[in-house]
Amino acid sequence: MLLGCPPPGTDPDSSGGTDDYDGPNPQQYGSVVINLASNLKTIEPPLDMNIDSYYVSATGPGAPFSTTVDGSETSVTIPSLLAGDWSIAVVARNTVPENIGGGTDDSVTVIPGEVTPCTIVVLPFEGTGTLSLSVSWPADDVATPSITATMAPLGGSAGAIDFSATGNPRTYEDTWDAGYYELNLGLYEASTKVWGTAAVVRIIADQTSSKDFVLTSSDINPMTEGDVAITIEPELQNSIEVSFDSTPSTYLIGDPDMSIVASTDPEDTGSYAYKWYLNGGLLAETSNTLSIGSGLSEGNYTVDLVVPEG
Question: Of 192, 191, 197, 190, whose CA–CA distance to 212 is shortest?
Answer without folding.
Answer: 197
